[in-house]
């Protein structure tokens, strides 16, 4: 029996359940004398960091940046698919599953394991009636019962209608489930606002976000977002990684541990990341990079934390509008963070990108160039070295 497994998000990994479920599947294979071949892929980006922190990169494929529905598609040639998730609540988890399964276009059996270890954790079965191979259905039922028993999870029906979206004239509305007051709202990796009440409803017109009902709009983020399709947009709320493992942290007081990079001073490409910091690994892949410049407070925090796993220093251009979407972020020792005082970080980032385009400099040369540029253009700043 070939099983394709999609692991979504860092939470299911950080809690230890991704590894536990993989071991349960091995036990199932031995107990029922069924040869089980497992292929596991990640769905989402911050989960990649969790996979690295938990030393699971030899078990879970993180070579591609894929949304969960695409990961399911990639594994569509397996007999049975498992979708593992740890949503903020039962409702958000069920909503997530329904959206992902529908977007995937997969009609094979999909077992969703949702919030294992929680009182409201469940197992959902998608597409069971659409796949008719007797031997697979027999093994499927055995597997479902085995997982339910071993994880102490009830098998339930989905309580969500999935994507809650509608039109009123030229405007498109999308209701977001399970948002707590004060939480940041992200669309395609960019913070566009903060929840002030419930329900939180995103409003777009002509493919532009124009309002957040029961939310405070962050227009600076909306500018970065540009055109969107609310139907297909990836929407997240709250902290991107709620329970990071203690890898590379001072366990006594849970403070950030700076990771020391090997001393290098080579000339190379200068990479700018000015939004969707989760994509930084794709931007530097297969390139001779000397410097990563991150533009924006949240982008800098996310990129700094991801690249710290590889000992890569950053130069951050920020203006102090951080949204705290990552808990206890890390940063590589020797990184430099600029706090711009009399301009927007976006504007400074654009000017620097234009000036540094196609240049090959060392990290230190780039740092010096930025300081001289800011001074010559009367841009006030403080710089913090990690």
Ranges where pLDDT stays below 50 over 5 or more residues in a row are: 248-263
> What strand line-up does the widest sheet have?
3-2-1-4-5-6-7
How far is it from the N-terminal to the C-terminal residue, by CA? Answer: 50 Å
Largest sheet report: 7 strands, mixed
Radius of gyration: 22 Å
pLDDT averaged residue by residue: 89
Helix percent band: 25-40%
**What is the helix tally?**
11
Question: Which term fits the overall shape?
Answer: globular
How large is the share of residues in beta strands? 25-35%
Tell me the total number of β-strands: 23
Oligomer: single chain
What does this protein look like?
There is one protein chain. The protein is an alpha/beta fold and 386 residues long. The strands form five sheets. A seven-stranded mixed β-sheet has the order 3-2-1-4-5-6-7, sandwiched between helices. Strands 22-18-19-20-21-23 form a six-stranded mixed β-sheet. The chain is 31% helix and 28% strand. The chain is globular and about 75 Å long. The relative contact order is 0.10. The model is unreliable at 248-263 (pLDDT under 50). The protein has helices at residues 11-14, 17-32, 46-53, 68-74, 90-104, 134-151, 219-225, 280-284, 297-308, 345-356, 363-376, and strands at 2-8, 37-43, 60-61, 80-85, 110-114, 122-126, 154-155, 164-168, 171-176, 184-187, 190-195, 200-205, 208-213, 215-217, 235-237, 249-250, 255-256, 268-273, 289-295, 314-318, 336-340, 360-361, 381-385. Helix 2 crosses helix 6 (134-151) and helix 4 crosses helix 5 (90-104). The chain contains eleven helices and 23 strands.
């Amino acid at each position: 029996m070939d099983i394709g497994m999609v692991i979504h998000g860092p939470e299911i990994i950080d809690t230890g359940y991704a590894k536990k479920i993989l071991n349960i599947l091995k036990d199932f294979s031995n107990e029922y004398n069924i040869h089980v071949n497992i292929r596991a892929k990640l769905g989402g980006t911050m989960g990649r960091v969790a996979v690295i922190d938990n030393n699971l990169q030899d078990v879970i494929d993180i070579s591609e940046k894929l949304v969960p529905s695409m990961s399911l598609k990639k594994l569509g040639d397996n007999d049975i698919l498992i979708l593992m998730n740890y949503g903020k609540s039962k409702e958000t988890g069920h909503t997530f599953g329904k959206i992902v399964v529908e977007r995937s276009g997969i009609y094979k059996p999909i077992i969703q394991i949702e919030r294992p270890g929680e009182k409201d954790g469940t197992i959902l079965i998608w597409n069971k009636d659409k796949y008719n191979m007797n031997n697979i259905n027999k093994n499927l039922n055995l597997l479902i019962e085995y997982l339910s028993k071993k994880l102490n999870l009830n098998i339930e029906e989905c309580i969500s209608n999935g994507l809650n979206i509608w039109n009123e004239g030229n405007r498109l509305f999308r209701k977001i489930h399970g948002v707590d007051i004060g939480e940041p709202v992200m669309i395609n990796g960019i913070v566009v606002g903060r929840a002030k009440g419930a329900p939180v409803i995103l409003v777009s017109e002509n493919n532009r976000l124009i309002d957040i009902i029961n939310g405070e709009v962050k227009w600076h983020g909306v500018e970065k977002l540009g055109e969107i399709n609310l139907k297909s947009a990836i929407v997240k709320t709250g902290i991107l990684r709620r329970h990071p493992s203690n890898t590379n942290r001072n366990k006594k007081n849970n403070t950030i541990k700076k990771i020391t990079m090997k001393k290098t001073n080579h000339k190379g490409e200068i990479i700018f990341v000015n939004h969707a910091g989760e994509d930084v690994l794709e931007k530097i892949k297969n390139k001779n990079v000397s410097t990563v410049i991150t533009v924006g407070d949240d982008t800098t925090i996310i990129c700094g934390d991801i690249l710290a796993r590889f000992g890569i220093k950053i130069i951050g251009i920020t203006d102090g509008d951080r949204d705290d979407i990552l808990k206890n972020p890390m940063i590589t020792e020797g990184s430099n963070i600029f706090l711009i005082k009399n301009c927007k970080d976006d504007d400074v980032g654009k000017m620097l990108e234009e000036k540094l385009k196609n240049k090959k400099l060392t990290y230190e040369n780039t740092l010096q160039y930025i300081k001289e540029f800011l001074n010559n253009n009367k841009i006030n700043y403080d710089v913090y070295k990690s």
